[in-house]
Amino acid sequence: MAPDMLISLLWTALLQTVHMVAVAGVIGSLIGLPIGIFLATSGRGELFPAPTINKIVGAIVNATRSTPFIILVVAIIPFTRLVAGTSIGTSAAIVPLTIATIPFVARLAESAIREVDKGLIEAARAMGATPMQIVFKVLLAEAKPGLTLALTLTLVSLVGYSAMVGAVGGGGLGDLGIRYGYQRFMPEVMLAVVVVLIVLVQAVQSSGDALARRFDKKTRKN
């Protein structure tokens, strides 16, 4: 394959991958983060005690997380068609990516929030803070570095998931690698796809780590 054609294909596939990861990451995080906050604050004796609902939501989250992604993609094809109007292509791939993101973010957010010192919560309660004030001014503020790392891990995982949807015509770098590198026996295309994926993951991880360190310093200063 000519170098200029390879570069063009890689650029188009990269844009598709970034689009899928960005949209699924944003929508999934906007839904998953509140669920994670609920799971971390709704146990017995916590800020919003609702242990029964907590167990039900937790079970649903666990069930979704335990489903292998490629099986999830196939299982929700009817729902994907309902939402996106098709089961193939970049727009369709965003649907299963988003659904996979929600429980992933929820559990990571729950873990980050539970790591906040319980003494800070008790101190805020003693000063008369309401549960919602404690959530926004104590839990989320103190958990910001952990939440940043959680979202970074989510985006990195989404890059890998986006490559997997290429197996079912989802577009992006995975689709390019399968169609040209595997089906047409072009190892140079497969190698190029792998290199671009590695660079993309490194860029996301490095940016997330730097942002988390910055938030951590601000938290310590405050």
Automatic annotation (TrEMBL):
Organism encoding this protein: Pseudorhizobium pelagicum
Protein name as catalogued: DL-methionine transporter permease subunit
PANTHER family from the UniProt entry: ABC TRANSPORTER PERMEASE (PTHR30450), D-METHIONINE TRANSPORT SYSTEM PERMEASE PROTEIN METI-RELATED (PTHR30450:SF1)
Transmembrane segments: 20-41, 53-77, 83-106, 147-169, 189-212
Entry GO terms, CC: plasma membrane
Primary localization: membrane
Protein family according to the UniProt entry: Belongs to the binding-protein-dependent transport system permease family. CysTW subfamily.
Gene3D superfamilies: MetI-like
Topological type in the membrane: Multi-pass membrane protein
Lineage: Bacteria, Pseudomonadati, Pseudomonadota, Alphaproteobacteria, Hyphomicrobiales
Residue ranges annotated for the ABC transmembrane type-1 domain, each copy included: 14-206
Subcellular location: Cell membrane
